[in-house]
Amino acid sequence: MNKNLRTSGIDIIGDVPWGTHFCQFYQTKEDLMNILVPYFKAGLEITSFACGLHHNLKDVEKGKRSS
Questions:
Q1: Measured between alpha carbons, how far is 40 from 48 in angstroms, rounded to an integer?
Q2: Which of 37, 30, 36 lies closest to 54, judged by CA?
Q3: CA distance linking residue 46 with residue 43, whole number of Å
Q4: In terms of pTM, does the model score above 0.70?
């Protein structure tokens, strides 16, 4: 493996340069877990840091109705 590349943990993506950003769309919670678990596992194995953001549209709509 090239020293400038890091494993993404996602088979279809492969190794990526440090600092690469991903955006993942999914339909089910299972789809989400199938991407996040290997991604975070790969990061933890190389003592890397990662940030995951999730936007729940139901909560946004609920907030709009309550204001």
A1: 9
A2: 36
A3: 5
A4: no
How far apart CA 31 and CA 43 sit, in angstroms, is 19
Q: What is the number of residues in the chain?
A: 67
Tokens of 10: 């996602």
Q: Name the strand (E) or helix (H) holding 7.
A: strand 5-7
Q: Is there a contact between 42 and 55 (Cβ–Cβ < 8 Å)? A: no
Is residue 28 helix, strand or coil?
coil
> Which tens digits make up the pLDDT trace of 39-48?
888 888 887 7
Instruction: From 12, 53, 55, select the one nearest 34 (Cα to Cα).
Output: 12
